[in-house]
User: Fold these one by one.
Assistant:
Number 1:
Amino acid sequence: MSVILNAGEISRALRRISHEILEKNHGSSEVLLLGIPTRGALLSQRIKVLIEEIEKSPVLAGTLDITMYRDDLRMRPPRTLMPTEIPGGGIDEKHVVLVDDVFYSGRTIRAALDAINEVGRPRSVQLAVLIDRGHRELPIRADFVGKNIPTAKDESVRVHLTEIDGVDEVLIEGRTSS
Amino acid sequence: MNLHVANAKNVKGLATELWIESGKIVSQPTNGVVYEDIDANGLTLVPGLVDLHTHLREPGREDAETVLSGSQAAVAGGYTAISAMPNTFPVADTAGVVEQVFRLGEHHNLCDVFPIGAVTVGQDGKHLAELAAMYQSEAKVRIFSDDGHCVADPLVMRRALEYVKTFDGIIAQHAQDPRLTESAQMNEGVISAKLGLKGWPAVAEEAIIARDVLLAEHVDSRLHICHLTTAGGVEIVRNAKKRGIKVTAEVTPHHLLLTDDVVESYDSVYKVNPPLRTLKDVHALREGLADGTIDIIATDHAPHPQEAKDCEWNAAAFGMLGLETAFSIGYLTMVKSGLISLETLIERMSTKPAEIAQYLYHGKIAVGTKANFALIDLKAEWKVDRVRLHSKSRNTPFHEMVLPGMVMKTFHNGALVFDRKAKL
Amino acid sequence: MKNLLSINDLSKADALEILDTAVELSRLSENTVRKFPTLRGRTVVNLFFEDSTRTRISFEAAAKRLSADVINFSAKGSSLSKGESLKDTALTLQAMGADAVIIRHSASGAAHQLARQEWMKGSVINAGDGTHEHPTQALLDAFTIRRRLRADSGDLTGLSVGIVGDVLHSRVARSNVLLLQKLGAEVILVAPPTLLPVGVDSWGAQVRYSLDDVLPLVDAVMMLRVQRERMEDLFFPTEREYSRNFGLNLERMNRLKNTAIVMHPGPMNRGLEISADSADSHQSVIVEQVANGVSVRMSVLYLLLGGATARDLNLSSAGGM
């Protein structure tokens, strides 16, 4: 097990992502951040705070639970639903930025796109992730990446965040030291 | 056929042997006569069991049981005499029907099949059947019962009790107040409250028993209480006996073992009339049987085809198989538990029922009487498999239970009618 | 969890998970998500041996919002009226590949029997069996109480719920007594002794005979439907006498706490166990109960069928042979 990002690095990555989101969307007025619970929702909150610091104006943010849209439901026991919070005005005509912690097969994001489709019709959907560990199984890419980390499939990437884990760090487990 | 049963033990556990000539027990071997040796080493010799409460379903429901299949089940359970309840189609309420059943028993000749006659025509509870005609028939019926139904009308019950005195008959009452048990499904209590099944209160049984012992006292007649199930009923019979009332009572094997909490599975194999009661009742029944308040164990063997049980509880038929498991259940609940000796158990399952019914050649092993007996391996245990029972039906509540005591051989009038080894 | 036959099948944690999931589902539904793909390809059979349009529609709406295929199978006009047994029906549904069967039956225990291993591999949900249980009704009642009195979270500790009327014949009462107590609430049963089962003392609920005495004590009062036929079976002398002693009316409403809610599982006998003005008062949550029924039933269907089911595992192991 080894630390691949520490608290400072996480913080710098999120700050950079925040700037990139603003740059791509020409400010924050049409942006709606949707974090995917659990840790994606926490990261989304942090990005919201960072953007609001930079822009000095409020940013819309919410959460989107994708459980009901997963394609692997029948492979495991049923999962507990997480909260979905869509801000008052809805997502129509917004630039929705999905926020998640680790970007891997792409299946979570596919489920999220389906979920968004049920909620409304945004102007665009973008994707921000803290870690991109590769091994995509679907033609999906991220718009904003904190750090690209090449991994083997038998490794797992763990994101710990202060709010629930007591510490900010990203770990990689199961790497065979070569 | 002459037999010599050697190396057996009797019900007291003492070594014993038996000489049989032409179906009858003799005191000692006769010079020049050849005997076939039956080695009963390790087995206990008991008089053939006698059941006063058997449903054979013939005529009318031969899909559930026949006199033949019921007789096969009986001898596999160590019984040499069974008593066929009259709730057949047609009801055994005439000399003709009881003679038919009696002759079928004779024809198959595995055990004695003694018909019980209906008290009322078609078991309607209103009009007395021709009781004397049934007694005077070849079947010589002495026990009458509307079993399955209660003789609820007190006047009809009184008349029946009086009427059978002319030939020393007995009325065997199925004690169930019909109004208190309308569409009742199981014992009324904690479990019925939980399961939402209509309750069958103990008082519905006890009220009829109380009424009938008083009637029997009043007209000085013989009353037999079928399948007693409640602690209160035991108490009533105990007091009646103290007062000298001519009442006898029976208990079934299943009521000695099972309690109403098994119904929580909604498995209708546990649906029976009268219903399974509580642990308190089970203990009272065992005590009653031990102290003689309850005279006998009777099986209430009640076969039903699978489709009568494979349905909603409310729609399922009442009844359980009993003949092939009765001895083992009696042995488990009464002897293994230390309440009575094997000798007393056999008295309750053979001697006493034969006395009550006046089945002269049953209930004892004595010189000069017909050789009706069974050989039992008390040490053996067996797992009940409903598919391997001899009954045509499968509705045993003891499926997969491991029970002590195995009937190995049964002899009827000196002839081997069941041999478990031969079956295997 | 494979089946929902009785509230006894649920631990407190299970029950809370069903309620929490129902909260999320009801919020999502408000956010204009009318339909989820979650149970696409799953077949849910509504097997109703007893007429109950309300319950059937509620389950049907719940299943359809989760994209399940719904087959309605009612006893009327089917082979069941021609004597097909419960067992044969189960085997038929099994052969059709039903992932779940929602059964309503007039016989207590019918759901348990249907769920026997050798009969049905799919899930069985009890939608009311005789006078035994109606677990989803109790869940939606608990959901409604929690929404009104506990802001949609946690258990019901500290609350007192009165259940009034024909407890003896009520599957709603049995399920509610079990569930409400499991969730920490105190239950007070109020009925004439004729309409309480022998053995009710084992339920852990208080039993009272005076509605007037109980009303000031409770946070919710649940009025049970009283069938007029019961009068014929001598359970009470006349409707008027029943109503006078055990019916909820405006005068009795005044004895309730201001915050207390009035519930009824429906269908109501207005004027018998509940007066029209009580049923329509601002303290009544009877209409909400109906609406909440869909969310709670979606939750149950999701938790039973949304993940890998026993049937899935059987199929995949069969495929490996």
Number 2:
Amino acid sequence: MNSNNGSYAAYLKYLLPALFWIILVLTSRDFLLQVEARSLFLFDWFWIKDFMNTPSGILQCLALFLTQFLHLPWMGSFIWVLLLALSAFLTERIYGISQNRSVLAWIPAFLLAGANMSIGYLIYIMNVPGYFFSPVLGYLFILATVAISRRISSVPVQIAFIAIWGFAGFWIAGYYAFAAIIAAGTDHLCSNKRSSRFVPLITGIAVTVISPLALYGLTTYNIPQSWSLGLPTSLYIETHFRTFLPVITATAVPVILPFIRSYVNRPVAKPVLLQTSVLTVCIILLYLSWFKDTNYRTEISMIQSVNEMDWNRTAGLLKDLNAKADKNKDYQPTRVMVLLKDLALIKTGQEGQSAFAFDDGDMKQKNSYDIPMVIQIGRILYLHYGIPGFCHRWCLEENGEFGWSYDRLKYLIMTSISIGDSKLTTKYLDMMDHTLFYRKWSEQQRSLNLNRELAAKTAPYDKIFPLVCYDDQLMEDLRGCEYTLSHHFLAARPEQATPFYDRVALFWALKSQDSRAFWAKFLLYLDSSDPTKLDRYYQEAAYMFGNMEKNRTLMALPYDKNTKDLYEAFSGVIRKNEMDLKSLKDARRIIPSQLRYTYYYYYTFVRGLEQF
Amino acid sequence: MKKLTAILILSVVLTGCSKVPSTSVSDSSYPSIFPDNIGITVPANIAPTNFLIQDNAQKHITVLEAGNQQVILRGKKVMIPFKKWHSLTRQGDIKVTVYSQTSGQWISYKPFTIFVSPDEIDNYISYRVIPHSFESYQRLSINQRDLTSFKEKVIYANSMVMKDGTRQCINCHYFRDYKTDYMQFHARQYLGGTIFYQDGKLLKLNMNTDSTLAAAVYPSWHPTHDYIAYSTNKTYQIMHTVHPDRIEAFDELSDLILYNIKDNAVSIIENSPDRLECHPAWSKDGRTLYYTSADYPEMKTTNQIVIHMDEVKYNLYRKPFDPDTRAWGPTEMFFDAAAIDSSITWPKVSPDGRYILCSISTHGVFPPYQDKSDLFMFDLENGTHRYVTEINSDQAESYHAWSSTGKWVVLSTRREDGIYTRLYLAHFNSDGTFSKPFALPQRDPEFNRKFLFAFNVPEFTIEPVRISARRIASFIRGSKPTQVSFESKINQ
């Protein structure tokens, strides 16, 4: 019986983390890469020292050090899972959890795993550096404190240890230090030692209360904040409970375990049943907490593809999702997905042929706190659409709010090269040189910084420089980046407009559903194109506007037969179902799929979308 | 015995490395160092001006010599111990020779001099430490630096009171007569108000009244009476799409007000509807107020100002004032900057009253954001003015302040990378010129390159701020602002 129980537990110890790691790597590559992209660790003593000057800074710094390994998702996630496994192993060992109840030791690890996998849209606004690794490191800090505390036999020395550790640990690990000394206190309280049983715990509680008060003024943090330093937080206070709760619950386990030690140490009659039940509940909870929203995952993957400049994949991801969602009549993509798809098509020169061959819409993102699009993808859009000043601005704003990151540093470098600010580019490149995985990229960019002609021929600048062909403008983007881009490209044509600029401006005119804007840009397009080989959607728009405005000259263009046929078919469907077509939802339900991916459909139904 | 041997070996190694190379090839050029300390003039009481040697050599030896003192340092980062630094500065000018070794061959660069002025500098400067962003200011503090050391302390940080989801900007700290028993700064938004510290007491004031434009902004403390002249501004900012300046800040409206501390009341100094008034600065005797002002007859809306941004030029004006009766005389244009297609901002009168140091840029009211902004100086005694070319760089020079003796100025500049504002100090010579400015000394010479916050609004003080940050924060958190009253225009 015992050996069976033992092998079951041992089997779990190896299988569970291995399985979790494999699932993670297979399903969440882009998420892990985005977590890494939103962090920064520099091998620079000056930079590290800055962390050491703040409470919980050392923990955050160590967490950032580990986060960088997510650059290789298999490696970073392996380290993370290994730490989770270590936390379970140490919990079992330190608290002497009997082998046939050993699954109980996994509960904190499950909670910590769930905390990370439930982040969802908070990934854009997490403002504690190293939030992905710091909870598990904090938990290990607690276990280490309990282990050290146990080795101290003298109660006065233990009290001194708890007091000193409370203050010192506050600088190392913030909140986790307080959880650690209280855990050490409860551990002593429930131990067999008879002398001064309550004193270490009281000391721990007292230090927890006093420490932030005593250090207030040295830290520049306000007092209530001090107790939660190091916990994963985001920009929005209403999300804190969600991000705190699993972590706080996990860290409460070492505080509670000493009280139930006699229970957890005792062999159980039906161990397999207990282990399986607990494990099942944990797995179900982890599965439920895992943020699996399809649009979110697609957005994350599209952003990652853009960062890798894999434009075909960027658009392909949305295409795949459209295909999967074809039968779902309520399906709409989010604006983030649509805008990234448009960008990808422009980069690959397919916008005229393919832009409306995708579902369009403004599905609200699955979060209850509206995160402005500019924070999610503003830097991407502004850089690639040739407004580098705005890209620079948002990178800096976000650095101020959420801390520096590889991603924003990369965009700062690319945007500075696009502006032609060599001195500033060098400053940012010098920073990038201190990273582990981006040195080669930095080296390439350094050569482009020194050679603008070479840069002009090299991606991504080959398609950015031609868009920076206008005189500088003063603008704001309070109405959102989609509106700003539309406004920018629909403005008067710059004198030095390049063919690529005209092409992008034509596309935005097409999107605007404004015939006057479209004609102005379309005539330029006609001048530079073979009229028998016009892109599909420009033909459709010209044919439709020409019909609507009864413009005989434009109607005389050699349109493809398909353009005319689709127009007739679309008009027929509209006439037939006029009364039932009130919204985009109705249209998606009623209009046959071969007409859904036309400009006629876009012009008629994709209107008044919510920008944010 | 083993210990003794180890010590001996260590001593031999160390002393061997710290010797001046016996043979070296002379290089006729100066070494490339950061910050650029070549030929600078420093006060004897300043902290060591550490620097970094920027070459790819394997070994470096730096020899600093003054009088009969010699200090030899190894390494690329030349970090001079305090005692040795002061043993040098006591002797006078310091000759610096840098040796670099590559492939076993030593070269000696052309020696340079750090000139040591007998004019001491005020011991403290205070400045704002701000992340380089335009709207985000999660971590923002007003700090004080002891210039005789590398010690820095926080006077107040917004994070000490901010809660999640709140914002608090802090700005415009100012001291009366270089002393810290009278100081003020503004806290905006969350728990906001103008914070006054005087005679050991803190006050929080709401300086926005029904009859004034907005809260008080840029201050100038009257030298003899209990008044502070302020501008009151409605400021906006807007972004460039491509230009390296990246942003423009501008006033849609602005006036000048006088705050009478004793009566806790404000009155209007200037509020012409056709003009934007800003940056008040008292003369030494307090009988003249200098300020800047721009016409904007055609530009009544934000959009129009944005469109005509380049045309907004601030000139320098002055206005007589009787501090006893609070009577104002007629306004007089002192300098027509628009006539030279420029805009003048931030006039600062020297402590002896003879000079006015200003920022000058192509347009507008906010020079830090314009890389063409420079310092410009008026000599009131002989009626001349000039660009202070010996201080200016190809990047923005913006805020500046005189030391209490008038022998030093501190200036904000973006000369290092074009984006992060850093503080430089320069000696003001008796002939009305400045010596080459030097970067505020830092323990780590690479500090300015690596520190990802900017400094602005540096102000000298002769003594430390004694009130603790903790007390200021507690006060801001626990107090409600006292409303100042409005006095109608008086004695105009």
Number 3:
Amino acid sequence: MKFIVVFLVAVFAFGVVMMRIEINRSGRAIGKLQTEVAVKEARNQYLELENARLAGPEIVSQFAQEHLHLRRTPPQKVIVLED
Amino acid sequence: MLPKKNPFAFNAKARMKLCGFLCLIPPLAIGIRLFYMQTFLYDELSNKADRAIYNFLKEDRLRGQILDVNGNYLAESVRTHSCGINKRYVKDKEATISFLAENLPMPKREIEKLWKEKGNFFFVAKKIKPDVYMKIRSVLRKPLGQGLDLTPEYERIHPYGTSALDILGEANSKNKGLSGLELMYNDELSQDISKRRAKRARRGEVIYDRSLKEEKSVGNIYLTIDALAQHYAEAALDKAVQDYEPERGIIVVQEPSTGRILAAASSPREDGQALAFQFAYEPGSTFKTISIASALDSGAVSTEDMIDMDGRKWEVAPRVVLQDKQHKEEELSIADIMALSSNIGAGKIALELGSKNLFYYMKAFGFGTKTDINFNGESKGSVAPYSKWTKVDLASKGYGYGVLLTPIQLVSAYSAIANGGYLMQPHLVDRIEYANGKVDKKAKPQKIRRVLKESTTEQMKEILEYVVVEGSGKRAQIPGYGVAGKTGTAEKVSKEGGYAKRLHVVSFCGFTPIKDPRFTILIILDNPKKYTFGGTAAAPIFKQVAEGLLTMYGVAPDQPEKLVQADAKKK
């Protein structure tokens, strides 16, 4: 009986230790992934901002005028279709 | 004879006692030491242990974004790093410098020069991009990277370049707003930097813990500014600056029904210096609209009245003579006074209205008071108490001298005429959206007070339309659209005293379409080097900006019959 109790306590203690080790290991992996995510997010953000810059009115209108030879439509010629 | 027995040597019990006692000494000593450590060295040792086990992470939150009314980015922060060198800890100088030269956009020679010139610690590069950061970070724990230091920083990026920079202002690399909206809304855009404890692994990596979950409280600010409208205004202003070389240039676009500012362009464009709110000036003839609207509203004059021009030379007071050189009429109607921009007419009408009444209307229009648009450094202009006005002061206020006002005040006053008589609270910030989902709506249309009767505003619209159709504002005409507005060419006060003939402020303020006004636009060119007038310089800029806005918002012509007439004329 005594042996069984000691054995169970030992198993429980082992389980707790293993659980702590596993939590720490996963935490470390998550920490690493989070750093990677942060760097990728930052890289993505730069790309998004570059995209926003290229889609900005100044760049678009300059491109439209210089490369596509477009010009702004006078307001009288705009036809607005409403639902 | 046998040697005498040692009673202790052969006494097993005694020897066991001794052994037991000896065995007890180390645990006892350990126990005492532990007790000492637990009680007397507790603080020192627990701090040491904390440092070994935990990392203290800086709460690092990206500054909130500033966006236009349609959600286009105007200002956004990105994480960057600065790379520094601590010479004392560098193991292999040559290898470390070569590594940095390979990865940073900096020649080896320059890094070596910095190494020689600077002290023990110096920064090699700032605003390092994520890819380079990862490369440097990967060697930090290796001999090659010893002595290198990566300090987190922030970079504020404006995707549209300098567009609206005067309104947005600047934020520094430590996430702090320095000017403009960045400064005014610093609390909403940023979060206090605090420290958090996180478990650390052997090589310094952070071990994730649920307590590390981010709690964001920063907000994103949506402005009432429309990036495209702002672009039209800035492009038109840049062209005007090129053509007329003014000291300053300002364009303000407001939605008269709500008071929202759609665009506010300044030249020169410097961060946090939005002239639309900070510049105070004597408006000149654009102010005639206010004095004449006040006189009509109070009943001091009516649209049928004819004003005597006194032979176009009016002696307001002894030795103060006003002259109208732009016409040869002996009498003018109110509409003609506006169309011909007669100072004599406006001065006489102001006298008819009286000091007290004009002062009351000026205050009701919001002149001499801050608009509460909440912009840093907003000027309130200046309106002296009417008790101090002389007859000359009153007459000159009638045509826009002796009163200082800001562009936002004037554009709001014209909007009151456009929207049927209500002074609306001008807004620059539409809403603030916080990360936790809370939305703080700022730009609810808010009527401050009724300034004019609706019937007066209708009369004023007709008069201002007449100015554009027949008078000094002809160059603001847009085929198919009713335009109401007034030109202004004001002399500036010279340093020597009095008004300088060659220093001018030229302006045009108006709204379109007349039937349902969508945009009130004010154009100001302060002290253009090339001599010009409100009607020749500012009115065409109004037209250019208004056409862009009407196209962009798809506003249908309110006077299509005029469009047909114009087409027929062309044919």
